[in-house]
Design a protein that fits this description.
With 161 residues, the chain is α/β, with parallel strands linked by helices. 52% of the residues lie in helices and 14% in strands. Helix 2 links the parallel strand 1 and strand 2. It is globular and about 35 Å long. The protein binds FE2/S2 (inorganic) cluster.
Length: 161
């Protein structure tokens, strides 16, 4: 009788060890990326607001930083975000021709193209840094851009520093 108790206890401890191993491997598989989103105040941020007021669900992986214009985003902000723990970065701007400061988004997209070359030098995949356009009325588009970016970064896995 005493032996069977001991055996049962031992079986349970083996099951516990197995379960904790399974739990750990599940934690590794369910990677949730940290993404920083720089959103222009006049269009993209308003688009995000529209998605929010319409209660459109989207993943909570993106931390939003509101800037007055995408032209305000220094490439150093993006490099700092990657250095300080982001797995991905998004820059969302007004559509071409809609920038409230006329040329801000044109400058932003030029800087973005140069930045991609720099990121490549650092071994950071281009898919981790997305530039896109979202207007104030495009709540659905905002949600789909977020979903696509989170999916792409999840596929890449955590950024190795
Ligand atoms: S004001 Fe939106 S990109 Fe310039």
């Amino acid at each position: 009788m005493q032996n069977s108790f001991f055996i049962k206890k031992k079986e349970n401890s083996n099951a516990d060890a197995f379960n904790s191993g399974t739990k750990k491997s599940c934690e590794t598989v369910s990677f949730e990326p940290k993404i920083i989103g720089f959103l222009c105040n006049w269009c993209s941020y308003a688009g995000a607001d529209k998605a929010g007021t319409a209660q459109k669900p989207y993943p909570p992986n993106v931390s939003v930083i509101r800037v007055m214009c995408s032209g305000r985003i220094d490439p150093q902000f993006i490099l700092d975000a990657f250095q300080k723990g982001a797995d991905g970065v998004m820059v969302l701007a007004c559509h071409p021709g809609d920038c409230h400061y006329k040329e801000g988004n044109y400058r932003a997209v030029q800087r973005y193209r140069l930045l991609l070359k720099l990121l490549k030098q650092f071994g950071i995949e281009a898919e981790r840094c997305r530039f896109d356009y979202v207007s104030a009325g495009e709540g659905d588009r905002f949600v789909s851009v977020i979903n696509e970016t989170v999916k792409a970064v999840k596929k890449l896995g955590p950024l190795k520093r």
